[in-house]
User: Which sequence fits this backbone?
């Protein structure tokens, strides 16, 4: 009788342990790493226990570049290490993370990084988490911005062209849309698909043009702004590097017969639209992965460089700047990478814009991926800097004669 009870107890205990192990295995699940969503980019080499070895996909980029963006599912409650097999691909704030499907993003910081790896402890109730090199900005983000301003008479959305993959490239007009504005301004972004932080600055600018402020009112009375948020729309949505695309990327396509529909169409449409009233053309970028300065890329044309220095002084003088900028950080032509040899693949946007009728100021603006000086760049601080930039543009334009 005693032996039967012992046997029964052992059996019950064994079943309990088996059930516990089964539940634990089910709770842990199978780790899945993918990039099957807009902007996704990753190649998984292997998954070995709690270590995932992976690397960014370069695709048709002709050099090493650092953009990646992936999703992890089935890791609730676990701590995983992600090891990059293709060099260090982290910026100055470590990886960005989103726990809500890419709606909002924050920085993990460099404490999570060790060499070419970073680690993350997944909350026990999370289904999936996204990680990215930078703060992503996709067509869906632009859609949310446009939805907020639906019905506003001072913003209209048109189609610049269709891409090679039949996506629509937005052409957004903001400000004084009836009659004859004193000035026209052209703003472009994402010639290099991966340079996403700059998009938040451009969104902040568009918000400022429409805001119920003195600056917003002045622009709506005096200026028509055309914004092309995604010059490489296919690259943005497919999750390409975009930088160094072979045989040339979008920002080196302003020469001879343009390869890409967006560049080809802009080159023909902008001069007709501007009708000699295009005073400013700005193209927004991000620099190398560890860059920490906002700066203008200097023109080889002395009159444009003089205008850039003037504008830089105005921008630096803006009080309560969301992100630090110093005009002395601007890069003159002939310094660092800003040399003729850097443009041997083709002609850049601002080199093309330098020669447009009526142009006063043309520049590429570099917005760091993660930090400006010691200040961390977030979607909110980037948008706020966009508003600062609009303040500076107004002050600059007010000093110009009407074309």
Assistant:
């Amino acid at each position: 009788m005693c032996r039967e009870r012992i046997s029964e107890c052992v059996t019950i205990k064994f079943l309990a342990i088996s059930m516990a192990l089964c539940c634990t295995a089910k709770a842990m699940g199978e780790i899945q790493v993918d990039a099957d969503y807009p902007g996704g980019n990753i190649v998984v080499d292997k998954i070995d226990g709690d270590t995932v070895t992976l690397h960014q996909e370069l695709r048709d980029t002709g050099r090493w570049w650092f953009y990646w963006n992936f999703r992890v599912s089935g890791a609730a409650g676990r701590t995983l290490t992600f090891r990059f097999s293709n060099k260090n691909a982290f910026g100055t704030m470590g990886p960005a993370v989103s726990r809500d499907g890419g709606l909002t993003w924050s920085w993990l910081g460099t404490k999570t990084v060790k060499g070419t790896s970073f680690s993350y402890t997944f909350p026990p109730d999370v289904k999936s988490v996204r990680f990215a090199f930078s703060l992503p900005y996709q067509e869906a983000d632009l859609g949310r911005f446009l939805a907020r301003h639906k019905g506003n008479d001072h913003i209209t959305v048109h189609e610049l062209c269709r891409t090679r993959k039949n996506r629509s490239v937005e052409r957004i007009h903001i400000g004084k849309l009836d009659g004859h504005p004193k000035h026209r301004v052209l703003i472009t972004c994402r010639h290099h698909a991966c340079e996403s932080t700059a998009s938040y600055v451009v969104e902040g600018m568009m918000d400022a043009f429409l805001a119920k402020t003195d600056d917003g009112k002045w622009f709506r009375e005096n200026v028509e702004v055309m914004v092309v948020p995604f010059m490489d729309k296919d690259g943005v949505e497919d999750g390409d590097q975009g930088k160094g695309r072979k045989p040339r990327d979008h920002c080196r396509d302003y020469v001879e017969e343009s390869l890409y529909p967006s560049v080809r169409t802009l080159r023909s449409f902008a001069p007709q639209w501007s009708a000699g009233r295009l005073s400013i053309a700005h193209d927004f970028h991000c620099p190398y992965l560890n860059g920490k300065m906002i700066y203008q890329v200097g023109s080889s044309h002395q009159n444009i460089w003089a205008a850039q220095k003037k504008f830089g002084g105005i921008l630096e003088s803006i009080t309560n700047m969301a992100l630090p900028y110093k005009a002395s950080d601007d890069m003159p032509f002939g310094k660092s990478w800003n040399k003729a040899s850097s443009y041997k693949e083709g002609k850049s946007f601002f080199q093309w814009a330098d020669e447009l009728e009526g142009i006063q100021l043309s520049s590429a603006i570099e917005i760091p991926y993660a930090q400006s000086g010691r200040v961390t760049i977030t979607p909110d601080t980037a948008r706020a800097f966009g508003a600062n930039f609009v303040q500076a543009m107004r002050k600059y334009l007010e000093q110009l004669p009407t074309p």
